[in-house]
Amino acid sequence: MSGSELAARVREALTVDAEAFQERAEAEAEELIEEVYDGTFDNSQAIIGLEQELYAVDDRTDALRRVPRQLLDRIGFEKELGLHNAEIQTSPVPLSRYGLEAQEAELQAHVDAAETAVGRENIQLVADGMWTVPPNGETATDYLCDSIEADGIRIATNMSDAVRYHTMANTDYPSGLRIDAPHVTLEADTVMPESLITSIQPHYQVPHAPDLPEHFTYALRVAGPLAALGANSPFFPPEMYDDVPAGQILADAWMENRITVFEDVLNPQTGDGDPKVCFPPDFDTVEDAIQDIAGDRTIVPMDVPDGQRFDDRFRHLRHKHGSYWRWVRPVFDGASRSAANARIEFRPLAAQPTIRDAVAFQALFAGLMESLPRREHPVRNLDWQTAKANFYAAVCDGLQAEFTWLTADASETGAVDEIYGEIFEYARDGLELRGLSTEEARRYIRPLRERVDRRTTPARWKHELVERQVERGVPLTEAIWGMQARYVEKQTETLVEGTFADWLEG
């Protein structure tokens, strides 16, 4: 699509009547609530799914690469925000031994085939929380901030041609369009800086839709510990750092910068409006959850054409949901009445070093969603503000964060081994409730238990590698890029079949 064609479509989107759009969304929300209470969104069992994002690099230099759109179509991956991004979603399956095996095998099959195909173009796909090496001959800042004005419309040069992405920079919604992290400040004209970050997103469909708030409450209580366990983005591209000593950058580094990038780019700056990317509230009822989506401010209202899907009855609400950016969020959709589902998308997790690590998080989260409500674990009574504090402590310090947890006997603890010991045991219990044997359940959990036992997440592995090099006198830029080369090298050997724990051997 040419720049002028894209600009014309953006301009057309900007003419949509926002008030009429909101009225339709609110009416659809009421209809959706009726369907939920009528049982339309119930399932006979728990269903799981997973979104996996990757980015492309040059297989000789590790520099970021743009993926030709035709190539992306051929390998069966979806477009994401940046031209360097790719995404795949697994097919929803029952939570069971066979379902988890199917999730792992599907990802392995698609990623392995994609790696072969892109390899012919000297491209490698990388699963990582944040890229640090810009395209050859470009700076990270230029790549993220480059834009043009076409017929009065601001267009990001390196962004996919999805109209809604470009419309965000041309509305009156006061997105921050900036990054403000320790020793990093970036100002942009579009949402393109969000393309720094890459994630995985486990999905869990609740069997009985009205029970979603109870599961959601538990999901918020485990969000901090799980985000810490998956931390994988401690460094920005090195040229983005201020001119301060490397030791200071290392001392002040956050373990999960992916969180702050998403929040800074898309949220209004302080005082300009309510944040859209945030730790969400608890919901007392499923009706509260639906109405929270309906009441969320829409950045890009659009004329959404009717279609043949069942959930096209709620198409304006579904469109609103596309910018309902909560770190844990409820979803109500389905291509057909029989496929209609209520699910929880767990969004705080950075992309992981291997497929097995990603599926381990999927199994861990799903197991917790099965066991914690059924066993009525007291952690649901952990104060919401404390759960939020746990989450942002994880962002800063990873496994070294100070957490507060309520144990099975309702006593308060901050001991890492006790907290994760319970998390792993209840996840194992939940998987066994879905028919897995004890050993099968432990197989999925083991790679994550290793992280706790060694107090080493991917972020900590990166940080320690860079720190050792800086202590030997290596400039920070070379140390970060050297770490990235080592990460890509290790992943080449383990992405499809190994685990991050394999990186820690020897």
UniProtKB/TrEMBL annotation:
Signal peptide positions are none
Origin species: Halorientalis regularis
Highest taxon of source: Archaea
Q: What is this protein called?
A: Gamma-glutamyl:cysteine ligase YbdK, ATP-grasp superfamily
Organism lineage string:
Archaea, Methanobacteriati, Methanobacteriota, Stenosarchaea group, Halobacteria
Q: Name one GO molecular function term.
A: ligase activity, forming carbon-nitrogen bonds
- Pfam families referenced in this protein's UniProt entry, alphabetically: GCS2
